[in-house]
Amino acid sequence: MIAFDEVTFWYDGAARPTLAGVDLSIDEGELVLVSGRTGSGKSTLLGMLNGLVPHFTGGTLAGDVRIDGASIVARPPRELAHLVGYVAQDPLSGFVADVVEEELAYGMEHLGLDPQTMRRRVEETLDLLGIADLRRRSVRSLSGGQQQRVAIGSVLTMHPRVLVLDEPTSALDPTAAEDVLATIARLVDDLALTVVVAEHRMERVVPFADRLALVEDGRVRIGDPADLLVDSPVAPPLVHLGRLVGWTPLPLSVREARRRVKPLASRLGLPPAPAAPRRPAALEARGITVRYGSFTAVDGVDLSVGHGEVVALMGRNGSGKSSLLWAVQGTGDRTTGVVDVDGVDPGDVRPAEARMLVGLVPQTAADLLYLETVDRECAAADDQSGVARGTCRALLERLAPAIPGGRHPRDLSEGQKLALVLAVVLTAQPAVVALDEPTRGLDYPGKAALAQILHDLAADGRGVVVSSHDVEFVAAVADTVVVLAEGEVVSSGPVRTVLAESPAFAPQVSKVLGPDWLTVDEVAAALPAEVVR
Amino acid sequence: MSTLADPVSPSAAPAPGRLRRELHPGAWWLWALGLAAGASFTLNPVLLVVLVAIAGLVVAACRGDAPWALSFRYYLYFGLLIVVMRVVFRILLGGGSAPGDPVLFHLPEIPLPEVARGIQLLGDVTVTEVLVGLYDGMRLAALVICIGAANSLANPKRLLASAPPALYEVGAALVVAVSVFPQLAESVRRVNRARRLRGDASRGTGAMHRVVIPVLEDALDRSMTLAAGMDARGYGRSGTASPRERFVTGALMLIGLFGLSVGTYGYLDGTAPKVLSYPMLALGLVFAVLALRSAGRRVQRTRYRPQRWLRAEYLTAGSGLAVAVGLKLLSTQQVAVLYPDVPGWPPISVLSLLVVAIAVLPVFVAPQAPSAHDQVGGDAA
After folding, report:
1. Residue B308 CB partners (closer than 8 Å, separation 6+)
2. Residues of chain A positioned with their CB less than 8 A from the CB of B372
3. Which region is the signal sequence (chain A) (predicted)?
4. What is the DSSP letter of B121?
5. Do A141 and B372 touch (CB under 8 A)?
6. What is the pTM for the complete model shown?
7. Exposure winner among A206, A335, B40, B228, fewest CB in 10 A?
8. With 50 as the cut, is the pLDDT of residue A182 above it?
9. Is CATH 3.30.980.10 the right assignment for the domain spanning A2-235?
């Protein structure tokens, strides 16, 4: 169905090709997972399938891309719309109409289909994706998972042969992500669609995938997921567990792993002790309520962060995590409630002083960056905090070594950008650091590096609050978890209790080995030396 | 399968009461333009007040809760401003009064040099000149408010969608441009908040720079994403026009424009030969319509559930037009009522009030606009 023939692609002005000599063939009805490190060229590969690369991005493409036997290299995206359905990362920014039903019909109107067909296909698609009750809703009022399903529906109505999805669940909470992925899996079964999907959190898609395409250093390897994951630089925790104890073939789903876990479980030592030392509180918040007009975003929440403690906030999109972080920081709206950091309420002092108490890295971290080079950002941060020149740069060097000082901040990778913003925030020496969804756009090694940074911050005696949808990241980083729903705390406690007890939030290792175990590192530490290879 | 049940389409479900749907935006515009035309035929303040009151009543009864629906009140303020300005200018500059008119109050006259003879600055303020200014201002305000009523009742996106296919691409660009503004406001808010996190309290040009750059980058990113999204879904697919068809379209368009401009000139310039006026206008119009149809044919695009023109649309548009025609006729039949003498109480006739009252018809026939809140199916979490 899809064939790449010696495809090489350069972005304009790039020193090396993003993709070099790619040969690839994907059969009809396959679900292929495209994976690789951030910036490896996954999105470039996907964009080639419908002409967005190079028609929208610029650059030079050599070689041939064929879909259904016909070369598509010279054809712009609009002429391929009937053949390839492309769903971009952020569905909201790609919506054209404001009502769900019209959004679904938009593509068909441009194909010039007759009204009868359009009407039929809209009804069919609404039912297929289970969104019939949303037909008249404004696309902006939908939740993240619903938006993603509408975006998928809006290309399905054109009856494409190939469906391309770029990070369809990266912004979704675990439950919404499951819904979207289940929808995609059903499409492959029911419609015989060829699906190409890029996804950072592979643990969700690997069980469905027929084959895995691994993008590394401009090359693409394609094959059976279990074979390729043996040495892939990105791999879900289950695969790491399999590698650790030498399972072949590697388990790809929790079910497979459970069947083989018996002999391992008997050799494991004692599970890690649920260590919870009493820590002096760095931040005490009582009865925080945030209202926007008649809408209550946060409703009487208590939050306590100890010195040296990492607290994770979890919950659906829109459950009040961001509002809570902003309110606690002092800059955001707060209707009622008190916050105490070293005897001071950050809400009562000027923003410049509040940031010395609580530093916040917002969801769109790049909003904090506005200068032309990394060095100038660092110098500005030093001046704003009134510390010696070079403080920020030294922090940055610790977080992400060797970023060229002359580089434009917008040209940095997601991980580097986050490190720079974190360094700017830390320059003010806040007692508590809050991070809002920092794992967006980070791959597994990036997340591991971030987890290490947060552990180091906690080891320095700071309190850390981090909101995240990423269960595996939270399992690796948090001491305490607070789960919010509709602005209220629904559960809170040590990470082990909260995560392992909830079916939606349990990490893969817990699902396999039981609630005593959260991460592969814990298992590695408890295994006798001769088992670990 | 056209038998798929749709609980909302009028044919399928005779629900109790009127169905919620949007009235065709064209119907609202015809109604409002009819009212505006009617208002332009009279200076009677009572009729004008009744007309504006009816327009306000219809807006209050029929508008939805969409953003544009809330704009009516600004047109009312604008109308008030027009009236006040008119009266103030009359007081300042005088004019319109005859000797012997009752003097309302006296202001010290500012003597002007000989060149400005005929212009009286301040001085005696007569009842007549204030009333003339008031009536004139009220007529202009009524026109503006009628247009405002159309703006708050008709969905602008739907209006563009009902435009001829040849104009679709222009319309789409307009819609995108309009929808960018709320997003910009949201970006500015976000970036400003983030700036405080940096302890950056600077104001003035430095702060501008720090807000504008991230906001513009954001806007540019979003526009590119939207453009890519539209392109990926077939926006701008090439039609099937041959070079010859394109030539024909172009020629028709040129002739049409030529006819329209000559016709307009002939109509406005009373000394021009009559043949240049209405016949040329008609000719230009015919060619312009032909050009649009020809251009529309090569656009390979269809409409999903286009808005239909039903009884409510005919009645609404008809009521507006009836007001226009009625007042036009009365303006020759009952001159004293439509153009009352000043000073003195404006006379009023039952017939003229009845004509204006026709405009209230949409309150009874127009369907209620759908609300964003009555579709709460599914979880909004």
Report:
1. B24
2. 137-138, 141
3. none
4. B
5. yes
6. 0.77
7. A335
8. yes
9. no
Q: Which amino acid is at B93?
A: L
End-to-end CA distance of chain A: 41
- Whole-angstrom Cα distance, residue A81 to residue A111? 8
Distance CA B55, CA B141 (A): 12
Decide if A366 contacts A332 (C-beta within 8 A).
Answer: no
Q: Residue B370: its chain A contacts at CB < 8 A?
A: 136
CA-to-CA distance for B153 and B27, rounded, in angstroms? 10
* pLDDT tens string A493-525: 999 889 888 888 899 999 898 888 899 988 888
B233 vs A contacts (CB less than 8 Å): 78, 81, 96, 106-107, 110, 154-155, 158
Q: Out of B196, B213, B229, whose CB is closest to A94?
A: B229
Q: Quick one: which of B76, B81, B80, B79 has its CA closest to B152?
A: B76
CA distance B381 to B365: 37
What fold characterizes domain A281-513? Rossmann fold (3.40.50)
Rg (CA), chain B: 27
Helix A391-399 to helix A414-426 angle (10° resolution) is 140
Q: How far apart are CA B135 and CA A181, in angstroms?
A: 67
Q: Pick from A52, A101, A155: which is nearest to B228 by CB?
A: A52
Cβ of B198 within 8 Å of Cβ of A105? The answer is: no
Judge if the upstream peptide bond of residue A54 is cis by omega within 30 degrees of 0: yes
User: Is B198 in the A-facing interface, judged by CB distances under 8 Å?
Assistant: yes
The boundaries of every CATH 3.40.50.300 domain in chain A are 2-235, 281-513
Residue A315, pLDDT > 70, answer yes
| B231/A contact by beta carbon, under 8 A | yes
> Over 90: is that where the pLDDT of B48 sits?
yes
Parallel, antiparallel or unpaired: strands A2-10 and A60-67: antiparallel
CA distances for B366 relative to A513, B66, B312, B317, angstroms: 65, 17, 5, 11
Q: Which two tokens stand for residue A422?
A: 């974190």
B199: amino acid identity, one letter: G
Whether the Cβ atoms of residue B323 and residue B34 lie closer than 8 Å to each other = yes
- Which among B233, B238, B300 is the top mutation candidate for probing chain A, defined by the most A β-carbons within 10 Å of its own β-carbon? B233
The ipTM (two decimal places) reads 0.82
If you measure CA to CA, which chain B residue comes closest to A359? Answer: B197
Rounded distance between C-alpha atoms, residue A365 and residue A410, angstroms: 11
**Chain B environment of A106 (Cβ under 8 Å):** 233
Q: Which residues of B touch A113 (CB under 8 A)?
A: 302
**Spatial contact of A412 and A38, defined as CB atoms under 8 Å apart:** no
pLDDT the model gives residue B220: 81
Q: Which of residues 142-171 of B touch A (CB under 8 A)?
A: 157
